[in-house]
Specification:
By secondary structure, this protein is mainly beta. It folds into two domains: 24-42 and 119-252, L,D-transpeptidase catalytic domain-like (Beta Barrel), CATH 2.40.440.10; 43-118, SH3 type barrels (Roll). Helices cover 3% and strands 38% of the residues. It has one helix and 17 strands. The strands form four sheets. Strands 12-11-10-17-13-14-15-16 form an eight-stranded mixed β-sheet, covered by helices on one side. The longest helix is centred in the last third of the chain and has 8 residues, at 233-240. The chain is globular. The two termini are 22 Å apart.
């Protein structure tokens, strides 16, 4: 999916701020499904202040590189930190990386990074493979490990399914100035990539959580998208107003 327009910056005078959000009662369309995943209360993340080389292991062979900014919004790249180890005077971070192969990781040094914690975690259940309605197709929003809100979603159709795995939000994108744009009013571009499309509408086959503006309305609970996850506009707006880059995303069946 091709995405445009940045929505927020998390850099404030050299520091990084989390949005304090009061507890919100859980809500759903229809009968709530059983929560399929229980995330940790927080996730350490590293925001890059320079381009970084990635390695297969601490001090090991070079794997690749990751840019300090994201390609759509220009926001600073923020990566979930899975492990931290010391090798001599160097601190190494095992981080989740964007792009293919899905859910891949690599090691970076802690220099030119700011580490902090995120307390939100998004869980998406894509449900069975049929395209008909299913109450299992839901998004669950957790804060401090507690379920705050949930709703029915529209994931990928059979043959272009939404990929399962462990991912994160790369960028938070606003279409509020262009409500006719497909996927408006917001899109959360994720580190997941389609297993069906290597390219889509000029982009790298990137999976996004987005709205239903611009003619993309579909009945929540059905599976008809190209692999992205659609939510009602009011629900994606609620989510986008709370989620920062680096927020972990778990996609399950």
């Amino acid at each position: 999916m091709k995405l445009y327009t940045k929505v927020l910056s998390i850099s404030i005078a050299g520091a990084f701020a989390l949005i304090a959000v009061p507890s919100v009662a859980s809500a759903a369309h229809g009968t709530a499904a059983r929560v399929p995943y229980h995330p940790a209360a927080s996730q350490e993340v590293a925001t890059l202040t320079a381009n970084k080389t990635t390695y297969h292991s601490p001090g090991g062979s070079r794997r690749g590189s990751v840019s300090r900014t994201r390609p759509i919004t220009g926001e600073a790249t923020t990566l979930p930190v899975l492990r931290t180890v010391k090798r001599g005077n160097t601190t190494w971070l095992d981080v989740r990386l964007p792009g293919r192969p899905n859910s891949h990781t690599g090691w970076i040094t802690s220099t030119h990074t700011n580490t902090w914690k995120i307390y939100w975690h998004i869980v998406v259940a894509v449900g069975p493979t049929t395209s008909g309605f299913s109450n299992q197709r839901r998004l669950y929003a957790f804060n401090h490990g507690k379920l705050i809100k949930q709703w029915l979603i529209v994931p990928g159709a059979p043959g272009r399914t939404t990929p399962t795995g462990q991912y994160f939000i790369e960028e938070n994108i606003s279409y509020t100035n262009d409500p006719s744009f497909p996927g408006s009013p917001y899109a959360l571009a994720t580190s997941a990539r389609s297993t069906t499309f290597t390219e889509f509408d000029g982009g790298p086959g990137q999976v996004a959580l987005h709205g239903m503006g611009g003619g993309l309305y579909a009945k929540p609970g059905t599976a008809v998208s190209h692999g992205c996850v659609r939510s009602l506009n009011s629900e994606i707006t609620w989510l986008a107003n709370r989620i920062l880059p680096g927020t972990p995303l778990t996609i399950v069946h």
